[in-house]
Automatic annotation (TrEMBL):
Keywords: Flavoprotein, FMN, Monooxygenase, Oxidoreductase. It comes from Frankia nepalensis. The keyword GTP-binding does not apply. The keyword Amino-acid biosynthesis does not apply. The lineage of its organism: Bacteria, Bacillati, Actinomycetota, Actinomycetes, Frankiales. GO terms for molecular function: nitronate monooxygenase activity. InterPro entries: Aldolase_TIM (IPR013785), NMO (IPR004136). Pfam families: NMO. This is Nitronate monooxygenase.
Amino acid sequence: MTAVSELRTPFTELLGIEHPVVQGGMMWVGRAELAAAVSEAGGLGIVTALTQPTPADLAAEIARTRKLTDKPFGVNLTILPSISPPPYDEYRRAIVDSGVTIVETAGASPEPYMDFFHEHGVRVIHKCTSVRHARKAERVGVAAVSIDGFECAGHPGEDDIPGLVLVPAAADALSIPFIASGGFADGRGLAAALVLGADGVNMGTRFLCSEESPVAEEVKRRIVAATELDTNLIFRPLRNTARVAKNSVSDEVVRILDGGGTFADVQGLVAGSRGRRVFEDGDLEAGIWGVGLVQGIIRDVPPAGEIVTRVVREARVVLDAALRRFSA
């Protein structure tokens, strides 16, 4: 892997990283090896807190990451409504007691936790799917925002606004650094995001399909073979839209809900334990699993660090070529 010169933006300056490329927190995926590889290459790797079964396990995973890199990395903490919620307070305590100073929050508003994070010197990056939510996150004191366009894997919100509009709209509305998420996998995307006003990119599916990603090789091969047409939007009638891989399970979920079914009618199909089997066992029909439209332009499974340096190098080439093309 050949090093590339730093690509600095307000986001990299804020976090002390070399390149404005973030490996988003992904359930069952954001583990030490992947996060460390991204950070070691100059990006920002993210360990996913709730992938770890207990706060003590999270502390151990953070320690493992530190053994693999001495560069900055963050921890994702996704806060969602649940019948039996995880012990979020204990996970937050494990994060700060481990000395982590960068946290990516998602799901519910981070407002109830901002005093705690500020008290411990933690800079919060909050994931949003709309400008209005990004502006609220700025008001409650987050250091940066990651704004997800409709193209993203997982939950794109209910507004259906793609990045080409959402990113410049966020640039017009925010005064804090922000990164663009959803639809990014190469240097063309990073260059476009920067031109549209973002300070970097967050990539999930691209890093899901990397050597260090702790998922079955069958999943990675499917991403490489798939096109941008091979996803489903599930839970649309429930106003809780999620973008997942197209397979027999997600097809059935769409059919049931479009036919007037309720969440209870699909609950067994969408259980998280089934999705975990996809990643661990490579059974692509075992359950639902998140993947973005960007799989249509992913064609290999390189090391995560190579992804970072390749994206930055390509972005420089694209920006230089555009300048030459349109200069007088």
